[in-house]
Amino acid sequence: MLLSVRIVVIGLVLMSAMLLAPGSYAEGLPGSQRIVSTDGATTEILLALGMQDELVAVDVTSVLPGTLADLPSVGYHRTLSAEGVMSMDPDLVVGSEHMGPPPVIAQLEAAGVSVVRQPSAHSIDGLKANIEQLAASLADGADSSSLLGEIDEQQQKLQRQSLKGMRAIFLLTAENRLRLSGQGTAGDALLKLTGATNPADFDNYRSVTAETLLSYEPELIIVAAEGEAGTAEKLLSEQPLLSHTPAAQNNRIIAVDGRTLVAGIGPGAVREALRVVEQLQDN
């Protein structure tokens, strides 16, 4: 009798350890999935949908709350490793259409892993479609109504405070180089969310000089950066010619978190656009 009790107690202890072990909380639970997210916007949507317990790995652009800070990284979404992703034992891998390379995606699908590749959203309608698709792809579905309602509310605020008619440019800066956001880019999509006009008449991103930017006479300059503090001062110290732009003269150089724009716009990009227009309203 005593031996039987000991066996039962040991069994319960082992079961508890398996349930509480790191990386195993998404296993064995009814309706649970092991999800790998390869895009920062996708990760944000999954968290908003309450899927934090199902996430087992993310990409390098994902911003995580402190409770998930130890989640493994699978690297950058365009250069995934099949071995690295498969080591997470995923049921579902989600990301943008840029997720790759293609042979890796083929390997994942051949191994029976569900892969969801979403088009890069360049409008709020596109973002909402991605949210609905992602919610439907989860094991038991997910209620996206709260997140969609929040985005609708932010869209209404953006429309009420629209920067319509304002000339604005979106910049990537690295190693003292300037890359200007053209049509069809995530930077251009963010400008459109604010209602501003992007004067760049080319597609994709293009390396430019400060003289070229000065010719656009931008009234607003948005710079992709991870930290806002000191961004305007740093830009003007590296590119002093830009101090002659209307944007600089009217204190309208604003930083946004570039991680929210890696593969189109996500909920974070909508919040950043709203922050920009509200900051200008306060000036």
Automatic annotation (TrEMBL):
Read off the InterPro entries from this record.
ABC_Transporter_SBP, ABC_transptr_periplasmic_BD
Q: Where are the transmembrane segments?
A: none
**Pfam families, per database record:** Peripla_BP_2 (PF01497)
Residues covered by the Fe/B12 periplasmic-binding domain: 34-283
Name the chain's protein.
Answer: Iron complex transport system substrate-binding protein
Which species is this record about?
Marinobacterium mangrovicola
